[in-house]
TrEMBL record:
Residue intervals of the Peptidase M12B domain: 179-273
Gene: LOC107721555
Gene3D superfamilies attached to this UniProt entry: Collagenase (Catalytic Domain) (3.40.390.10)
Region of interest (Disordered), residue spans: 147-170
Stated name of the protein: Zinc metalloproteinase-disintegrin-like batroxstatin-1
Gene Ontology CC annotations of this record: plasma membrane
Keyword Electron transport: no
Any single biological process term in GO: proteolysis
Annotated GO MF terms: metalloendopeptidase activity
Keyword vocabulary terms for this entry: Disulfide bond
InterPro entries: MetalloPept_cat_dom_sf, Peptidase_M12B, Peptidase_M12B_N, Reprolysin_adamalysin
Keyword check for Disulfide bond: yes
Signal peptide (from-to): none
Length: 273
């Protein structure tokens, strides 16, 4: 589930309230912890959120193309990292993955239900729309990807047999071992145009994706960080096909012949329409 271009057809209007005032030291940066309260379906919900400070690798970079096809790679500074994970008070099975950049935008799960939330105004203040996940008509982009990691299915710890328990003497299981994945995302030209050809707008969506993925994977002791993203601003670098397998093959070839020569990463994924 990726939070890009969702259309909420059935939703409830809520007004989240921040439960603590910003201190002077927080005015130039996002606080490490923040609390929000709202009433949803007649139930009071309080979210306790912790800032995800590791969403990017230290060598994070962004790549785009000029109108004449020249590749440009930058290392942006002073990015507004407003991405959080958290829990809902008195709900041990809850999970929250949230952006606070412009209001609340993201995903949260209670013991009973999964929800998406997004602001109804551009400045993010005031009313928000909350929808049950099954009521969302998602125009999410398709995603294909390739990894540097492969497993021999005969090995212990290899999917899908990694869920089997192992003896204490054999050491930690695959899931118990701390893992770190450097993730690289590529957005095709159509996705760029769907974000109004606005790199900052697309960046926020990319960061929301990584924040969500990070929240999911930490349950299996795996930390995912974004090492970079590339936007095909001028034109697609491969032929994007409605057939997912064909697009994956072409993306894999492009990655092996181009991307790996200039960008270190463990996993690369293409977001395309």
């Amino acid at each position: 589930m990726f939070l890009i271009n969702v259309i909420i057809s059935v939703y409830e209007i809520v007004r989240p309230i921040r439960l603590h005032a910003l201190q002077k030291r927080d005015l130039k940066s996002r606080p490490d912890t923040v609390k929000y309260a709202m009433t949803l379906g007649g139930r009071d919900i309080e979210m306790h959120l912790q800032k995800n400070n590791g969403i990017l690798t230290k060598d994070y970079s962004e790549t785009y193309y000029t109108k004449d096809g020249m590749l440009v790679t930058t290392t942006p500074e002073d990015l507004d990292l407003c991405y959080y994970h958290g829990k809902i008070v008195n709900d041990s099975k809850s999970s929250v993955s949230m952006s606070t950049c412009d209001g609340l935008r993201g995903y949260f799960q209670t013991e009973e239900q999964r929800f998406l939330i997004e602001p109804l105004s551009q400045d993010g203040d005031g009313d928000h729309a909350v929808s049950k996940y099954e009521d969302v008509n998602e125009e999410t982009p398709r995603v294909c990807g390739v990894t540097n990691t492969s497993w021999d299915e005969s090995e212990e710890g290899a999917p899908p047999r990694i869920l089997k328990s192992r003896s204490h003497s054999s050491g930690p299981t695959f899931f118990q071992q701390q893992k770190y994945i450097e993730f690289f995302l590529v957005a095709d030209n159509r996705e760029y145009k769907k974000m109004d050809s606005n790199l900052e707008k697309l960046r926020k969506r990319i960061f929301e994706i990584i924040n969500y993925i990070n929240n999911v994977y930490k349950e299996i002791n795996t930390f995912v960080a974004l090492t970079g993203f590339e936007v095909w601003t001028d034109s697609d670098k491969i032929t994007v096909s409605p057939v997912a397998g064909e697009t994956l093959d072409r993306f894999t070839q492009w990655r092996n012949s181009d991307l790996v020569k200039r960008q270190q990463h463990d996993n690369a994924h293409l977001i395309y329409s």
